[in-house]
Amino acid sequence: MSRSSIYRRIRSCENEIESYRNKIRILQDKQARLRALRQKYSNLQNDFGSRQSSRKNSLSNLRATHFNIKMVSPYYAGMSDLLNGSEFNHAYNGLEEAKSKISSSINSAQYKIDSYQNSISGCERTIDCLYDELNDMED
Q1: What share of the chain is helix, strand, coil (3-state, %, to 5)?
Q2: What is the pTM of this model?
Q3: Which of 31, 40, 84, 137 would suit a FRET pair with 59, their CA atoms being 20 to 30 Å apart?
């Protein structure tokens, strides 16, 4: 291989490395946005659970203080069904599922980043070999 073709090959590898690094930056930005989104879902889920617990406690206090009043009994039964029913569990589990999908996207991006980093390492090894070849030509 001629010196000029070696230099062209080195330049090509350097361009590939730059391209991979740009792709990695884009993926890292995406990961940061996804982590922030996952944290928002976690905060929402925690807040949702806390509010639900607070509502259950309030309902329990109402029952304890007004158990004998006939008007309170149907209200308590209805609210108890609402607070302990499947709607809350579906909503809470839906938030958990959303967080899981976000985590999966973060992991997928990390897999791509790792792949690009491996490609960068391969290009760097190729560049090293090409420089060795140039040095051998000079000797």
Answers
A1: 95, 0, 5
A2: 0.76
A3: 40
**Residue pLDDT, tens place only, 75-116:** 667 777 667 777 788 888 999 999 999 999 999 999 999 999
Q: Give all domains of the chain, ordered by start, each with its CATH number.
A: 3-138 (1.10.287.620)
Query: For residue 139, what pLDDT is reported?
Result: 64
130 in helix, strand or coil? helix
The SS3 call for residue 13 is helix
Distances (CA, A) of 11 to 1, 7, 17, 128, 134: 15, 6, 10, 12, 14
Q: Is residue 113 within 8 Å of residue 26, measured between CB atoms?
A: no
Query: Rounded to an integer, what distance in angstroms lies between the CA atom of residue 48 and that of residue 127?
Result: 55
The CA distance from 117 to 120, in Å, is 5
139: amino acid identity, one letter: D
